[in-house]
């Protein structure tokens, strides 16, 4: 019997290690200037590097979406999948791909970490010129609605990248401007607002972490960046170049200058140094998590919940245990346009609800799950993201 336990133990350790590598990073070579090294997985909880997924020296086979075929790229130009200048990376939860853009290029690349297949999305929407630092795309993240978002240094372009049936489309959402209350902490000037990275919250608003350590909240509907404060607890000369959310809802920041990573509380902006490697040159970070991804309860049923919020097994669990739960509970699934795409009645037994609901036929993307009692009174609303 014992001879079978050791391989099983190794398997479990391997699964646990893979689960810990839930961040991705663009890393650079140990130089003073930007010099792309590779995309790699990270175990940020322990500050360790994982698998190198694709490097500056990897063979690149690039499939062009517009030309519908494999293309040969000029490695000496800014417009190639292994360009020296990289600072924008996002994790696409709808298909587990990495999406990124070279700084001096409008090209968008989609990399499958498993197969190493690369797709090129050419577009005329993103306007980048090598001589204009304002136009360089330096921030990118997945939104809680399943789309990918990217922004240039000065906020004059905020773009949305959508995957529809395997084809990527790019939309310009407009110009992000300073809130009138920002004062000297301007979002649109080099010293206080340029560079860095951005993350999303569960309401599809964004936080931009500027290289200076300043943090701005961008309300998507208003396209205004409001200064919320400066990160505390990091060295004065710390350059914030990457940011992403961990499983606990905290933001992890990293630097291109080979400094340690820090965990930042979004509410207090207090930073705590993370253990592990101290000399990683990180140009950007990406993860599958969002800030404030919590249950929105609309009444006193605090024991009512829906999980998981990231759905990759085609079902959710609905659990409740409260004396006021009676009869049937109606579950309704809405897409982000407000369309009812699924309804189901759930039976309550002895003030308890414990049921698995299969989400048949739902495409990848964000949805709102609504629970209501027999009178139609809302009990719970919660956003989920279907990834398969």
TrEMBL record:
What taxonomic classification does the UniProt entry list for its organism? Bacteria, Pseudomonadati, Bacteroidota, Flavobacteriia, Flavobacteriales
What start and end residues bound the annotated signal peptide?
Answer: 1-19
Species name: Chryseobacterium lactis
Alphabetically sorted, this entry's keywords are:
Signal
One Pfam family, short name? Por_Secre_tail
Report the SUPFAM superfamilies cross-referenced here: NHL repeat
Please give the name of this protein. Secretion protein
Domain Secretion system C-terminal sorting, first and last residues per copy: 306-384
InterPro entries to which the protein is assigned, alphabetical:
Secre_tail (IPR026444)
């Amino acid at each position: 019997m014992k001879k079978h336990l050791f391989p099983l133990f190794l398997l479990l350790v391997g699964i646990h290690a893979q689960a810990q590598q839930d961040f991705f990073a663009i890393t650079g070579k140990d130089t003073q200037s930007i010099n792309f090294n590779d995309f790699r997985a990270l175990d940020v909880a322990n500050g360790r590097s994982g698998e190198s997924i694709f490097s500056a020296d990897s063979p690149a086979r690039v499939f062009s979406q517009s030309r519908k075929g494999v293309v040969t790229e000029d490695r000496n130009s800014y417009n190639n999948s292994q360009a020296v200048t990289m600072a924008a990376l996002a994790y696409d939860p709808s298909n587990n791909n990495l999406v990124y853009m070279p700084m001096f290029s409008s090209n968008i690349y989609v990399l499958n970490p498993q197969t190493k297949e690369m797709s090129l999305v050419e577009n005329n929407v993103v306007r980048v010129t090598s001589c204009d630092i304002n136009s360089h795309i330096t921030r990118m993240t997945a939104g809680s609605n399943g789309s990918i978002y990217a922004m240039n240094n000065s906020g004059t372009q905020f773009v949305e990248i959508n995957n529809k049936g395997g084809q990527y489309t790019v939309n310009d959402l407009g110009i992000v401007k300073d809130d009138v209350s920002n004062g000297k902490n301007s979002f649109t000037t080099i010293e206080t607002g340029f560079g860095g990275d951005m993350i999303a919250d569960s309401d599809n608003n964004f936080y931009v972490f500027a290289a200076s350590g300043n943090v701005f909240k961008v309300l998507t509907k208003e396209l205004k960046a409001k200064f919320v404060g400066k990160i505390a607890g990091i060295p004065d000369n710390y350059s914030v170049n990457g940011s992403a959310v961990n499983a606990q809802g905290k933001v992890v920041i990293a630097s291109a200058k080979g400094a340690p990573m820090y965990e930042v509380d979004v509410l207090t902006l207090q930073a705590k140094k993370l253990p592990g490697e101290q000399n990683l040159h990180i140009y950007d970070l990406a993860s599958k998590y969002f800030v404030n991804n919590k249950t929105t309860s609309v009444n006193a049923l605090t024991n009512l919940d829906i999980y998981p919020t990231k759905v990759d097994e085609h079902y959710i669990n609905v659990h409740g245990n409260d004396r006021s739960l009676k009869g049937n509970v109606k579950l309704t699934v809405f897409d982000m346009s407000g369309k009812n795409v699924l309804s189901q009645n759930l039976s309550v037994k002895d003030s308890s609800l414990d049921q698995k609901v299969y989400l048949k036929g739902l495409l990848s993307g964000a949805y709102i799950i609504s629970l209501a009692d027999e009178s139609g009174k809302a009990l719970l609303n919660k956003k989920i993201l279907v990834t398969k």
